[in-house]
Structure formats: structure tokens, C-alpha cells
Amino acid sequence: MRNRPYFEIANPEIPNILRGLPRGLAVLDVGCGSGVHGSELNRVHGHRVVGVDLSAESIAKAKTRLAEAYVADVTKPESYPFAGAQKFDVIVFSDILEHLYDPMDTLTRHFHLLAPGGRVLISLPNVAIWNVRLEMILGRFEYQDTGTLDRTHIRFFTRNTFRRFTQQAGLEVANRRITPGILRPFVPLIKKVYGRAGRVDGQTDSSSIMDSGPYRFYLKWFYPIERAISSICPGLLAFQFVILAEPTKAIAHQLQGLYTSIPAHESGVVHALRQGQPS
Description:
Number of helices: 11
CATH class: Alpha Beta
CATH superfamily: Vaccinia Virus protein VP39
Order of helices and strands: HEHEHEEHEHHEHEEHHEHH
Strand content: 15-25%
């Protein structure tokens, strides 16, 4: 696989959806990458963020931004170095579940890491966005280096399938937001421009787009307008769906009792909770 420049673009709706919650919460960022979202949560809300990611290179940078960061397999949270020692007020799954073969299993396996009253924040790309629909009408479904059809995406979600996914996971959604997708399909082209212009000695500053004047101007003046328009028809115009949810009362009650005595990796425990069946 060829080496391609990596650029960070933080999802502004991740800190936005947490507004109204207390400051200084304990947050776990699952698939944290280089820690850009955790850094924003600390800057905006003062949250203490712990990150996990499979990439040692990403974690090396995340360690400079987050309170703690570990190389770990996100599909096996029971093996995290802090498993059993830390609980979290919010667990963030920002654009990670679509990269997994069994996102439901990974999501629900993390429930035992929630503190009482804890919440789950999920962000997923919308495969039914307008440009993908247009491409399919024209008979094309081509994977890209980035975006909705990122070649590393395994699972795809629409607005409706995401709703069913959260229901089947045993989550009650408290808040929903979107990121706009009217201009977002053109971001891969912008990344190519920055990839060519921003290289120094063969390296690319991953935060160069976020730190650029044009992007900050867009975020301040055009983003709110684009988001307002996209909200009229989110199934067509949203780039990402973002939710804040918590386990149903039934699952939360069972988790409180079960995880004090049963290891999180016990076969069938989480699935039994989700389905309302004895394990």
C-alpha cells in the first residue's frame, strides 16, 4: 500500500454535543488516532481524556496531547492496561466503528467501562450522502483514500440503519447532531493540494489544514450556514451522524451488578444484556 499524507480534521460536533455536561469528565477515546479529538475535548471542556489505538505511531503523538494513551486492540477492551482500574463518564467512538467487522460487539464490550450514568458518543459517516448517491446512479462505487468511501471502511451506515444499530445495542439516544456534507466531498481534493504543497523534507504536517486561515474562516462563517441547510435533509446532506446516548435502564442495572463479579470478557455476557436474556 502506498504511503499517503495524513491530515487531521477535528469533528466540531464532538465537543458541541457535550455542551451542558459538567467540566472535567473522565473520557475514553476509542480509536483515538493521534489524539486530535481528545485534545479538543480537553481544550473546550477541560475533560481528562484517555486514548487507545492500534497504531503505535499515532499513540506516540497522542501521548503529547492526552492524559494517557495506549497501544491496544479496541476490539478487546478487557485487555486494556487500565481495565478494572478506571471508569469513564463518556466513551467516544469517533469514526472507528465503520472500520470494524463487528462494530456491535466492540461497542457493547465497552459498556463495562462506563461509570454509573455514563454516556456513549458515536460518530459515523453517512454512506447515503448526495455525492455517493450520484456516483451510484452513474454506476460507480469507487473507494478513495479518504472520505465516506475510505478504502479502510468495512461497514456502512445510513441514517435509518444507524438508528437501528443504536437500538439493537441497547442505547437510548439523548442528543443527535450532524456534520454538514454539502462541501465535505471536496475535502479529498483539498487534502491532495495540501499534500503537495505542505511537504517539508518528505514530511507533511498532519494539522496543517486545521491550522490554516482558510479552514478557520470556513469554520467560523460558512460551517454554521452549511450545517443549517444540511439539517433540512440530513439523510441526503449530512456527512456524519453524531449521537450522545446511554445504556437503557435495564442494561445499566444489570451491568452494575454483573460487572462487579463477572469478568468483562466472559463469553455472551454483553450480548445477553443487549438481548434481555440470561447469560
